[in-house]
Every structure is written in structure tokens, then in C-alpha cells.
DNA sequence: TTTGATAAAATACAAGTAACTTTGCACGTA
DNA sequence: TACGTGCAAAGTTACTTGTATTTTATCAAA
């Protein structure tokens, strides 16, 4: 099997074939004004016969336009899911640095809708050409922002949460419900009896979990367990993100009072809090733990055995690929596939070394 | 956080700064001849002070070179691991079609070393500029081929099998031993007792399995089982790739005579043979099956429940990324990371819909 | 005949490459 | 000493593909 690059038809060739200048062909191709009906017909006739594919890279080089990209993401710590997404985005910027690109990240407090709104204002005031949008809990606020972008005809990409009534250039994320069901399946395999006790640890803030993702993963997990392990007892333990000492107290009390609990799960990246607690405070208590995201603290727990399973989704790649999609769409004018549901990956001690992200 | 594209220093700027022409700067940058010591020093001084990064895309466009890529891969059926790798490679060709690229695939019989050798000759006779090399069982034959490439200073990439004494531009593949260990871990979780019986189904040809990958996965699996489930009994069943009727007979006899076997595994993509057999011939016999590669036949088995687990590695992405690496190295002259050990992924009914490749 | 508007060609540019041309110097011979 | 030859060195320019501005041409109306 062999592929030869067919010698491509250039604008210059089209100009010769239709007996006009390259400028006129360019005007026709881009639907610009100042083309006579006669010229348009001549060029159109040639275009209908051949299959013109422009050289997207030469085009981007020649246009010499500066593209301003902006992203709005949740605030995050250095070792976190969103830090990896952000690094992926920056890698995208670096990769396509040969084209004139600027990139600006705006961060909002995921527990504070007003913070999102004001960062949206800042973002729009920075006059970007395209926008990458992280998740926000409240649909209406998101809708409002997207409407403003649509009005300005600014293309945007969605990261993490998809909405069917929006029209983003692209979406990258995981199906949270299915991902929760998968975590249920793994839990089912891990538990040996059929009437075991499981604890769900939630990290709360402002009376709710940080994201819809987390919420939906729990929904999926519970669905699965209800159907496949109906006799399992599921405990709920609420922890508070900004209160380390309090977290310890809550965990200590919970594990003392619930000696039968041998399985624990979180639906965000904080399973390491439980793993570290058990390792230092109750080293004899054996609890099988499962959580999300291969952040450094979790990877450490997997390696030392204090956490058994992680479910991951390559946030760095998502950031990079999302940026690449936006670049392809906005700079190279190549149409992109809309939805990218990333794979739901199980990480254990045995395969975590090969989860490079 | 904000990144602005710094206004880049061009060759023209360097020429002005060092008081020579762009031609001379180009000669210095590319180490070409006909540059006086004085000019070289002037240009070098400027280069030392600034951080010149060429525009790789403009460079590739201007050079107007046709790059001939060639790949040598094992022969394969339409629904197979290697078919997906090949499609990934073709997608790479399509993606970078704006640069003048030709691509040629040579296929060899994995059970016949002579076939590999003669395809190597054909490949070298086609005078490629860069080569992508699939796995071959016999090290010495591979070594011989790579030596020939080195002598001609042809860059190459390795797919699937890595050798530390070669110097490829890049390598994409899975650590087969570790992947086998991971399959052991999953098997350990799946089995409920501690003295269960497991069958390894091997697909043979010419007295051996098709690849070192397959061999090594089995090694990793056995290592893991020896340590973690020493009481498990492991059966071996050899099937023959080109004998469908014979395969059926062997399976029928095996399952009849080994009523205690409740777990089965293959270390290549043919677990669907066992799944389909059990579903049609012995529908009441419940066997938990695990295999490799999300080929269509296996995906179907996962969905209908006749196979429980697949271990996968995104062959299409591997092909695409491998091609992209070669393109970046050869056309854009961007240095590439050498080793890419891809992640070892577990697929079940619950997450297989999101394994897009 | 001039003015104005539109159409279309010509051209400069993006960044870099490479073929082609010119310059400058050393050396040789008349 | 004058001139020619040869070659290294360095400058100029055309080229890659496509974009976008400027210039020129055309035609109708005043």
C-alpha cells in the first residue's frame, strides 16, 4: 500500500485555468467583494471541476494574524487535576508558537458563582479571538456566558462539561455517570463478600461538592451498586476542603465507629487524604481505597499501597488536545470533530508507571 | 497567567545585527561551507547573545522537499491490532499532507523470517528518507536491518518492540511484561477462590506464538500469579491460527475434560474465538474471559458479555503519534522524545464505549 | 474630458531555502 | 606592471503557498 502526495493544485493554477489573477481567485475563495459575475463564474467553474484543498499552513503563515486565545478554569492547587489540564494547554501554546499566538488564563472560585461571572467579564474585556471554558456548577450562568460569546461570534471549546444545546468548536471530557458506573464495577470486583460496607468520602465546600462531575460519578456508582451489590451498605462521610485538622477528626471517628467498613471511595482527587490518614493514624486497619485522578499525592499512595485504585483520564492530554483542536479550527481553518469523550482508565500499582500524562 | 508570543527574531534580523546577508546566516546556521572565519564569528556572536528559534513550519514550506516515508509491518487482517496501527499511520499522512509526503507500507509474514528480509530489501530499494519498523521475533534479523539503515543514515522509528542498543528517533509501544502482570492483577481480582483453575489459550503458527509481545505478556502474567495466587492451576491450550475447525475441536475437548476451569485468557487479540465458541457451543458454561486488543470482534464479545476484560493500548493513536513524531523530526527538525510507553488500559462493558481509537 | 466607482492585476509580505550572481583576492603569465 | 584566471566568500533573488494591500484598467456618468 502506498500513498503519494498528489501534486497539489495551487491558487496560481486555478488563476491560470480560469484566466484571472490569483487575487481574484482569493476573493472568490473567501467570498470577498469586488468580483464581477463573469469572473466569479469562470473561477467557480474551475473550482467545481477540481478539488481544491488549500495549504493550511502556508495560509496561516501568510495571514500573519495574531490569535488571542483565552481560557477560564477553576482555581486549583499545584498538584491537581486542573493544574495538569492547564499545563497541557500551555504545551499546546508552545507547540504552535511558530504561529503568532497569545494565551491568557482566568481563574474562578468553583464555589462562588460571582467569581465566575467577574472572571467572564475580565475575559471578554481582554478581547480574545477564541475561548476555552472549564466547568461551572450552575447551568444558567454558563448559558449566559456562552450567549455573550455567541453574540460576539467568538468560537469556544468546552472542557469537562458538555451541554447539548451549546455549539462549541469542540468538547473534551469524560462521561461522569459512566465513569461512576465503571468505578462501581471495579468496587464489585474488589469486594469479596456480598454484604460489605463501603464509605463514600466527599470533599465539600459551600454546602456542596465542587463539581457536577463529582456529583455524577457518585450517581453512576450508586446506580451500579444498587443493581449489582444491593446488599452492600454505603456510608457517607463529608469532609471539608479547607479544614485539615477537622478532616482528621472526622476520619478518626468514622473508622472507630464503623469497624466493618473495608472499602472506601472518593469521586474527586482527594482519596490520598484517606490513604495518608490510615497509613499514619491507623496502620493496622486494612481498607481498600479507590479514587479519581493521578495527581502526585494519589500516585504516591498507589505506589506505597495505601490506595488500591485510581480512575484517570489524562488531563494533560485533554488540555493539549483541546488547544490543538482550537488551533486547528481558528488558525488553520480545519473543521474539528465536536465531541471527545476520553477513555475511563483504571490505574493500579501494576500499570501506574505507564500512565504518563 | 498569560503568555504572549514574543516577537521573534528572524534570519533577516540576525543578518542585520551581524552585518552580513541572510545567505551567510543561513550558511552558518546549517553548517554549510564557504563562510569566512570573520563572518562566522560575527554571526556566531549574535547567535550566542540571542536565542534564535527558527520557524519550523516556514522552513519546511520553503525547503520544498518531498519526504518519502516507509513502514514495514506484519501482515494482518482487516479487523486486527495492526490494521488499526496502519490506519493511524495513514491518518498521520493525511494530517500533514500540506507538506510533500509519500508513504509506503511493506508487509511481512510474522512467522517467516525470509519474508521480513525480502521486504526489508524492497523497502530499502524504494529509497525512503525515514522508516517505521514493526516488531520481528528474531533479534539478529532486526539488528541486521537497523545496521543497514544506520549505514545509510536513515532515521527510523520502532513500533511495539524496543531495543536499548538501537537509536531510533522514537519508540511507541507497551511494556509487555508489565502488561502481563497487570492482566494477572485483574485475574486475581476476578477469581473469587484461591485455588481456581485458569486456561491460557495460545494462538500458534510455525511452532511458536506470533510475537515476543505475546510471549512476554504470558511471562508477566505467570510471574504475577506465581506470587499472588500460587494455588491456582494454570492450563495451556494451543490453538492454530489457520485452522478454524481444528480450533473448535480443541476447545470443545478442553472444556469437556476440564470442568473446573472458570477463567480463560489470551495474550493476543483472539479471545473472541473462545468467547464465540462458548456462546454458541456451550452457552451454559460460565467462563470469565480476558484478552488483549479492542478489535471489533472482541468489542462485540465485551458488549454481549461473552468476554469480560480486554487490555488495550490505542493502536490507532500509536500509529498516528509515531508518524507525527517522525514528521516532527524529519520535516520540522524538532527533536523528539525517544521512548513512549503507552498506558495499559482495562476495558469492560462499562467503559468500552469511551475507548475510541 | 474629467471624475468616480468598481474590477482585476500586480506586488509586497510571511519566514526561510537555495540557486545564482557578484565581489574580492591570490596567483600566474606576458 | 597589466591583465586574466580561478576560487572562496558573500550578496541577491527567485522560490515555497497564500494573503492583503496597492496600483492599474475599464466603463459609465457628468
Summed up:
2 copies of one chain form a homodimer. With 357 residues, chain A is α/β, with parallel strands linked by helices. Chain A contains 13 helices and 14 strands.
Write up what this structure looks like.
- Two copies of one chain form a homodimer.
- With 357 residues, the first copy, chain A, is an alpha/beta fold.
- Helices cover 45% and strands 20% of the residues of chain A.
- The first copy, chain A, has helices at 11-18, 22-29, 37-49, 56-63, 81-95, 113-125, 139-151, 176-190, 212-228, 244-257, 271-281, 296-304, 315-330, and strands at 2-3, 67-74, 101-108, 130-133, 156-159, 170-173, 197-205, 208-209, 233-240, 261-266, 288-292, 309-312, 339-341, 345-347.
- Chain A is elongated and about 85 Å long.
- In chain A, 41% of the residues are buried.
- The mean pLDDT of chain A is 92.
- Chains A and B meet through strand 1, helix 4, helix 5, strand 3 and helix 8 of A and strand 1, helix 4, helix 5, strand 3 and helix 8 of B.
- Strand 3 of chain A pairs antiparallel with strand 1 (2-3) of chain B, so a sheet runs across the interface.
- Chain A binds a DNA duplex (30 and 30 nucleotides) through helix 2 and helix 4.
Amino acid at each position: 500500500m502506498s500513498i503519494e502526495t498528489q501534486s497539489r493544485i495551487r491558487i496560481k493554477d486555478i488563476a491560470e485555468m480560469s484566466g484571472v489573477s490569483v487575487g481574484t481567485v482569493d476573493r472568490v475563495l473567501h467570498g470577498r467583494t469586488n468580483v464581477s459575475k463573469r469572473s466569479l463564474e469562470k473561477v467557480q467553474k474551475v473550482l467545481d471541476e477540481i478539488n481544491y484543498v488549500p495549504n493550511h499552513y502556508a495560509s496561516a503563515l501568510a495571514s500573519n494574524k495574531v490569535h488571542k486565545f483565552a481560557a477560564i478554569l477553576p482555581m486549583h492547587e499545584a498538584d491537581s487535576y486542573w493544574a495538569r489540564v492547564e499545563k497541557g494547554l500551555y504545551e499546546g501554546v508552545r507547540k504552535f508558537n511558530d504561529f503568532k499566538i497569545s494565551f491568557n488564563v482566568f481563574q474562578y472560585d468553583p464555589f462562588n458563582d460571582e467569581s465566575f461571572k467577574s472572571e467572564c467579564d475580565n475575559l471578554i474585556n481582554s478581547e480574545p479571538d477564541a475561548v476555552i471554558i472549564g466547568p461551572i456548577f450552575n447551568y444558567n450562568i454558563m448559558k449566559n456566558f456562552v450567549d455573550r460569546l455567541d453574540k460576539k461570534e467568538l468560537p469556544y471549546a468546552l472542557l469537562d462539561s458538555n451541554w447539548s444545546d451549546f455549539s462549541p468548536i469542540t468538547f473534551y471530557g469524560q462521561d461522569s455517570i459512566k465513569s461512576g458506573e465503571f468505578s462501581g464495577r471495579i468496587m464489585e470486583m474488589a469486594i469479596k463478600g456480598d454484604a460489605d460496607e463501603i464509605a463514600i468520602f466527599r470533599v465539600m465546600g459551600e454546602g456542596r461538592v465542587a463539581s457536577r462531575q463529582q456529583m455524577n460519578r457518585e450517581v453512576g456508582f450508586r446506580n451500579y451498586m444498587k443493581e449489582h451489590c444491593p446488599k452492600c451498605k454505603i456510608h457517607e462521610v463529608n469532609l471539608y476542603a479547607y479544614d485539615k485538622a477537622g478532616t482528621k477528626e472526622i476520619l478518626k471517628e468514622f473508622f472507630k465507629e464503623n469497624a466493618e467498613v473495608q472499602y472506601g471511595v472518593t469521586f474527586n482527587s482527594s482519596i490520598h487524604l484517606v490513604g495518608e490518614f490510615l497509613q499514619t493514624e491507623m496502620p493496622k486497619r486494612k481498607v481498600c481505597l479507590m479514587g479519581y485522578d493521578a495527581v502526585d499525592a494519589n500516585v504516591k499512595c498507589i505506589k506505597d499501597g495505601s490506595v488500591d485504585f485510581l480512575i484517570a483520564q489524562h488531563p494533560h492530554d485533554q488540555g493539549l488536545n483541546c488547544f490543538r483542536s482550537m488551533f486547528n479550527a481558528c488558525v488553520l481553518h480545519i473543521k474539528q470533530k465536536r465531541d471527545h469523550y476520553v477513555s475511563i482508565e483504571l490505574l493500579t500499582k501494576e500499570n501506574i508507571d505507564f500512565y504518563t500524562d
